[in-house]
Amino acid sequence: MRKIVENFTVISNEACNLTNFHITLQSDHPLAEVFPGQFTNIEIPDNKDVFLRRPFSIFEVNNENRTISVLVKVLGRGSLTLSEVRTGSRLSLIYPLGKGFTLPAPDERILAVGGGSGVAPVLHLVRYAEANPGSADVILGAKSETEHLNAIDSYGKYAGLHYTTDDGTMGVKGLVTDHPLFGDLARYDRIYACGPLPMMKAVAREAFRAGVSCEVSLENLMACGFGVCLCCIEPTVKGNLCVCTEGPVFNINDLKW
Amino acid sequence: MRKIVENFTVISNEACNLTNFHITLQSDHPLAEVFPGQFTNIEIPDNKDVFLRRPFSIFEVNNENRTISVLVKVLGRGSLTLSEVRTGSRLSLIYPLGKGFTLPAPDERILAVGGGSGVAPVLHLVRYAEANPGSADVILGAKSETEHLNAIDSYGKYAGLHYTTDDGTMGVKGLVTDHPLFGDLARYDRIYACGPLPMMKAVAREAFRAGVSCEVSLENLMACGFGVCLCCIEPTVKGNLCVCTEGPVFNINDLKW
Amino acid sequence: MVNLSVKIKDLALKNPVMTASGCSGFGEELADFYDVSQLGAILLKGITPRNRDGNLYPRMAETASGMLNAVGLQNKGVDYFISEIYPRIKNYDTNLIVNVNGSTVEEYIEVTEKINELDRVTAMELNISCPNVKEGGMAFGVSCPSAEYVTREIRKVYDKTLIVKLSPNVTDVTEIAKAVEAQGADSVSLVNTFLGMAIDSETRKPLLSTITGGLSGPAIKPIALRMVWQVSNAVKIPVIGLGGIMNAADAIEFLLAGASAVQVGTAIFKDPRIPLQIIDGIENYLQRHHFNDISQLIGGLQV
Amino acid sequence: MVNLSVKIKDLALKNPVMTASGCSGFGEELADFYDVSQLGAILLKGITPRNRDGNLYPRMAETASGMLNAVGLQNKGVDYFISEIYPRIKNYDTNLIVNVNGSTVEEYIEVTEKINELDRVTAMELNISCPNVKEGGMAFGVSCPSAEYVTREIRKVYDKTLIVKLSPNVTDVTEIAKAVEAQGADSVSLVNTFLGMAIDSETRKPLLSTITGGLSGPAIKPIALRMVWQVSNAVKIPVIGLGGIMNAADAIEFLLAGASAVQVGTAIFKDPRIPLQIIDGIENYLQRHHFNDISQLIGGLQV
Ligand SMILES: Cc1cc2nc3c(=O)[nH]c(=O)nc-3n(C[C@H](O)[C@H](O)[C@H](O)COP(=O)(O)OP(=O)(O)OC[C@H]3O[C@@H](n4cnc5c(N)ncnc54)[C@H](O)[C@@H]3O)c2cc1C
Ligand SMILES: Cc1cc2nc3c(=O)[nH]c(=O)nc-3n(C[C@H](O)[C@H](O)[C@H](O)COP(=O)(O)OP(=O)(O)OC[C@H]3O[C@@H](n4cnc5c(N)ncnc54)[C@H](O)[C@@H]3O)c2cc1C
Ligand SMILES: Cc1cc2nc3c(=O)[nH]c(=O)nc-3n(C[C@H](O)[C@H](O)[C@H](O)COP(=O)(O)O)c2cc1C
Ligand SMILES: Cc1cc2nc3c(=O)[nH]c(=O)nc-3n(C[C@H](O)[C@H](O)[C@H](O)COP(=O)(O)O)c2cc1C
Ligand code: FES
Ligand code: FES
Fold first, then answer.
1. Which of A215, B129, B167, D189 lies at 20 to 30 Å from D63 by C-alpha?
2. Given a cut of 90, is residue A56 above it in pLDDT?
3. Rounded alpha-carbon distances, angstroms, from residue A99 to A31, C253, D115
4. Is residue A152 predicted with pLDDT exceeding 90?
């Protein structure tokens, strides 16, 4: 599959809340085709303490404007520097990377679960699949209301939007798996999850119990992002697989969780 | 002597010409006393390829505004990054460093010669010494008119300003030592020079011939700037001396040129 | 026009820039970005006789101007390589060089004999310097007798250009280089990674599953360059230099220090196009400095 | 309140943070910035029996996350130190440790005997690892017999705490550490600089007058940390760790790897206050993690 290294221009960088930033990047050229669940490896500018690129899921894609966007959660030095990037500056991206989610068939009912920075790929999915609130539910989990992303209300046209927070300040109090929708998973044909490892494992456990096909998107540490270093591997029933090329999306049946 | 490590705020960064920048920095605290010829070691922000600080002569000092300024000539990666620094950003400075020039007595006649980035300390000197055009001459040398600094006309009140350019586009054509003032050095009590090594050596040769006391300010490569690493040494009649603490100003009689 | 081609014994390179083993897969991932026939050679990922899963995750940690890896020679074994991968890559119009590994001399021989049969594999790199495996690997590369022994045995079974990859984790790398030269190595490549370690101070745990791993990237360049210079002055066979090369200036420094060719490793992770940019940069340098042949740079350090 | 004090044999440190030799002069330059009595110890600039001019300029080159130096032990000799410098610094309320150097064992002994008489010099660091001198220096530190020999001779004439500073330019640093431990060293400090090299590709000349020099700074930290961890597991005497420490987290990593104390070198060039910031940072860490004694960190790596 053709991959590209290219300088994009930052056309906006909006704080969604204290620790999440929505950065939109414009290409000088027509975009390569991007599928939900694919990611980009971004060169962090100007930070003496960062050597390697940092991977981020591609959130929104606009082929007309030649833009893609990422949701960046500030976790450490690289994501912090990225969150401070200014409009007009140039960032080097390698994209599109990885294999995306298995797209649902038009008549399939889906549940997409996103936690923390994991909301980007699942929202990309419901939009790309042209889902609708009748056939798709999204549960977004966070620690507290203040960590929930604003400006995603527009996704209400693709899916029923549901929230959970650890402290109960928004939506259902508890973990994503505490949401009532988890009470009857059997009505879904497919479940998708992306977020912190414990969250994905909890979702996987419920999906497995309910016998519903489930895909998760892993965030293993990466050096290259395009398959040459073998640093990002995940043990699977098919042996050690590269998360960056054979993932980041895996069917839970293949994982050794 | 008390030395300080402190964050200054960039309050202006003006291009003097294509490769020279005048950067003014403000302290949060009253300034330490700075003598002409002393320098500051500046931490270069945001450049992955720069590890150490970079030394720059202190050009102008304004105790009321708590500002000092430097003239930065773009030579490589560090000076380039510094030249792009924005107003409002913070820079870490170590200052005041080194020993300055021997100040002229009130009745002494002086010639100060500056080439390239070496103009900063010699202009600082004539201003600090409260010289006047009757008793002080300054020769500024450059490759071409385009490399001469604008906005130094105000120094006309401290000294007669004279120019040389290699290509004759401004002032006398030739090297600084080709200037007619070098025809009769004996009328000066002291000569000061700062600039590229060949220039300083040429000035030193003439001063030595004319028997006039001459001080030069060296720009040896430095790691620390405050005397602990012994990387910046210059061989002198007194042995290897530290340019950063026992210089950067040396009497030519002490040098092994 | 300047001449960029060099020869390492029978190995003819159209230019002196190769990818480093373990940093360029089997060339296929680079081919997703550009035409790999522009490269001087592709050093294929380290191969062992049989499948190796490699070490547990996490296998990498970022360090100041570099990274540690603990991949541990994950590969599907030489037979899989020959039947599945080689047919896909054998038509790349560049040199394919196999990086040969083993836990015992017998294992090294087993891989070597098999790849000796492959027409399009024009040279082999004998890896006696991998710090990330429990048996074999670096153990062979840090003492003269063992380096001599494995080189001698491999020389017996390999006809084409034999490059021995040296470990930097030694007191005197010239001793090892001279030892393998004496046993018939056609070239030495250096350096492999330095044994290093990283700790998460907050969790108080090592950052790698294996505790220690191999350090690569610009951080090691000054040491690698010194070793290449020392070895170039100590042996007569051509030297291949690597360790932290990120751009053409870095590559030229290795050539000046005496390397006949260079390899680019970790830089590829930052930008897979860097090897091509280095080729262009070297050509540009030669023109700018009025040289017409790359050989004028090799060993051209003015001391 | 947390306890930061540690003991290295008879050397009592109020906290485990020392400056490194050659990076902090004789303490006087640091005293221009702050009260040096806050430091655990000051490692004084390397001293030889007689005046040494050191190497020619240029003596330093910047590298990726580090620097090369080729100072070559410039100093005015031990007698000048005793008569001119010692009287000025002897009242600093911290440990003064002399870094002892020589071209021959006799020279090492000469310096040692003289500084043994100085009340306020509470320990010595035997430098058998300087890569920047033609004779002596690193030559003593890269083989077990010579390291043993010089340590044994020095132990005979030195009563106080004897620290031996090890070179990282060796195949197995634990062998050297065990050898000097067996000869009565009270502690080992590691690492000294790595032998490296830098070239200006444009002028095609080396950047150092001596061609090669010593690499220090964050670039070397992963290798230094690995060596400290290996040595801590190999010897019973306390280990002092250094190499690229820039902040408290770095220092804590060395403590976790087994160092009883740390030294800060190149970081001082960037900001002379870093040793103090590290002391504060360690204290803060202990509080944050509910430790009350620094000893709970030492060797606390969870593997
Ligand atoms: C395929 C993929 C897609 C991703 N998509 C997104 C996204 O859309 N939005 C987003 O905000 N983040 C995403 N991430 C995670 C993101 O790459 C990391 O948060 C980022 O690299 C952290 O860099 P840093 O320099 O800020 O952290 P560092 O300073 O390097 O590390 C800070 C701390 O975080 C830990 N850490 C760093 N990276 C990871 C990781 N990948 N997994 C677990 N712990 C880690 C470190 O061990 C350390 O303890 C994705 C990762 C992958 C692999
Ligand atoms: C006491 C002192 C005062 C100084 N005052 C000024 C000043 O007022 N204005 C000003 O513009 N510059 C001044 N300099 C010089 C300035 O420090 C260097 O130009 C700067 O450090 C270059 O950094 P860089 O990262 O841009 O260059 P690099 O990328 O590090 O180097 C680019 C090239 O320049 C050469 N180079 C770098 N520094 C020097 C040097 N000091 N001498 C000779 N060659 C060098 C390098 O070898 C290399 O070839 C002063 C230097 C000293 C020691
Ligand atoms: C992730 C990774 C995997 C590697 N795998 C191998 C390998 O299989 N065989 C080998 O000889 N060297 C291997 N190396 C070492 C590199 O080929 C090279 O010697 C080293 O990284 C130094 O060069 P660099 O700084 O340009 O990366 C590997 C290096 C890295 C970073
Ligand atoms: C400029 C310079 C001079 C040094 N001089 C000495 C010395 O005289 N004696 C010594 O034992 N080590 C000397 N060293 C080595 C340091 O003490 C230290 O071992 C090394 O720099 C690694 O630590 P760092 O990375 O914190 O600097 C010197 C290092 C530098 C950079
Ligand atoms: S990150 Fe390099 S192979 Fe996946
Ligand atoms: S620059 Fe360190 S002593 Fe002068």
1. D189
2. yes
3. 17, 40, 68
4. no
DSSP code, position A171:
S
* 3-state SS class at A4: strand
Chain segment D183-209, per-residue pLDDT in tens: 999 999 999 999 999 999 999 999 999
Give yes or no for residue A120 CB within 6 A of ligand 1.
Answer: yes
Instruction: List all residues 6 or more positions away from C161 whose beta carbon is below 8 Å from its beta carbon.
Output: C8, C9, C10, C11, C122, C123, C124, C186, C187
Written as six digits, the tokens of A95 are 């994209």
Work out the percent of chain D whose per-residue pLDDT is above 70.
100
**Inter-chain residue contact D270 with B2, CB threshold 8 Å:** no
Which residue's alpha carbon is nearest to atom 3 within ligand 4? D22
Give the model's confidence band at A130: pLDDT under 50 very low, under 70 low, under 90 confident, else very high. confident
Distance of CA C286 to CAs B136, C255, C261, D121, Å? 49, 12, 15, 57
Nearest CA to ligand 2 atom 2: B219
A78 lines ligand 1 (CB under 6 A): yes
Residues of chain C with pLDDT under 70: none
Taking contacts as CB-CB distances below 8 angstroms, the residues of chain C near D169 are 171
Q: How far is CA C233 from CA C173, C253, D215, in A?
A: 12, 15, 21
Q: Determine the atom of ligand 2 nearest the C-alpha atom of B79.
A: 26
Interface test with D, best of C144, C176, C192, C199 (most D CBs within 10 A): C199
Check if B47 contacts A (Cβ < 8 Å): yes
Please check whether residue C125 lies inside any domain of the structure. yes
In a domain, C286, yes or no: yes
Residue A102 predicted with pLDDT over 90: yes
Tens of pLDDT, residues D257-301: 999 999 999 999 999 999 999 999 999 999 999 999 999 999 999
Q: Which residues of C touch D215 (CB under 8 A)?
A: 222-223
Q: Write down the catalytic residue from D18, D78, D130, D208.
A: D130
| Ligand 5 proximity of A224 Cβ (cutoff 6 Å) | yes
Structure tokens at D64: 């990726």
Is D303 a member of any domain?
no
Any atom of ligand 6 within 6 Å of the Cβ of B52 = no
> Which residues of A are less than 8 Å from B48 in CB distance?
46-48, 50-51
Count: domains in chain D: 1
The Cα of B185 is separated from the nearest Cα of chain D by a number of Å equal to 32
User: Residue C48: its pLDDT value, please?
Assistant: 96
Residue A27 and residue A67 in contact, taking contact as beta carbons nearer than 8 Å: yes
How far away, in angstroms, is D59 Cα from ligand 4 center?
Answer: 13
Chains that touch A (3 or more CB pairs under 8 A): B, C
pLDDT band at A82 (very low <50, low <70, confident <90, very high): very high
Q: Determine, yes or no, domain membership for D110.
A: yes
User: Which CATH number covers residue C206?
Assistant: 3.20.20.70
| CB-ligand 4 contact for D242 (6 Å cutoff) | yes
CA distances from C176 to C46, C130, C223 (A): 21, 15, 16
The answer, yes or no, to whether residue B151 has pLDDT greater than 70, is no
Contact D74 B230 (CB under 8 A): yes
Is D23 marked active-site? no
Q: CA D185, CA D181: separation in Å to the nearest integer?
A: 5
Q: Which residues of D touch C252 (CB under 8 A)?
A: 201
Confidence band of A150 (pLDDT split at 50, 70, 90): low
Go through the domains of chain A in sequence order and give each one's CATH number: 4-97 (2.40.30.10), 110-219 (3.40.50.80)
Residue C186: per-residue pLDDT: 98
| pLDDT 10s digits, D11-63 | 999 999 999 999 999 999 999 999 999 999 999 999 999 999 999 999 999 99
Q: Range of D125's domain?
A: 6-296
Rounded mean pLDDT, A157-180: 92
What is this structure's pTM? 0.97
